[in-house]
Amino acid sequence: MWGTEWPRYEVIKQDTPKSSPQMVGSVHAVGPEHALLVARHVFVRRPAAYALFVAPAEAFFHITQEGLKDPGALRPEEGPEEPYWVFAKRSHRRSMVYGDLVGRFAARGPGDAIAQALLQAQGVAFWAVPERLVAGTEPKEEVVESWFAPAKEKTYRLQSYYGLITAKGEEV
Fold first, then answer.
1. Gene3D superfamilies in the record, alphabetically (predicted)?
2. Domain that holds residue 114
3. Which one of 76, 82, 120, 148 has the largest count of C-beta atoms within 10 Å of its C-beta?
4. In 3-state terms, the chain is what percent helix, strand and coil (to 5)?
């Protein structure tokens, strides 16, 4: 794209206080604050939301079932431990959600975090991202109300509700 495309951010959405955050897609934005605003308009226009998070796409380490067969793929790296968020896609059938949060793990690298997650969960693919790179809305009542309440009153209609416009401009 000739260097004009904004960086890509992965979007993580939590629907209710009791539900697990889920990876739901990505947006392009100038920075994390902008990514949160764009994600709000793309992923929270009508469905309910409790919290929204974003992280730079390039910060995610990703591995599939085939990659897990390599014994060296999940070795801990040298350096200090830090918290990682680990997500797992549990089935190929769930096309709307990339991955569910398995948990937060103190690890020496993303591979180590996924190795720990494998003790708790199975999946067809895993993602790990350092927690320090995750930006999000605070789950405080006033934040939830100001960010997500306006979408409650929007009427949701399937595209078939609007009819089709023919080449002559007549509605079918």
1. Phenylacetic acid degradation B
2. 8-162
3. 148
4. 25, 30, 45
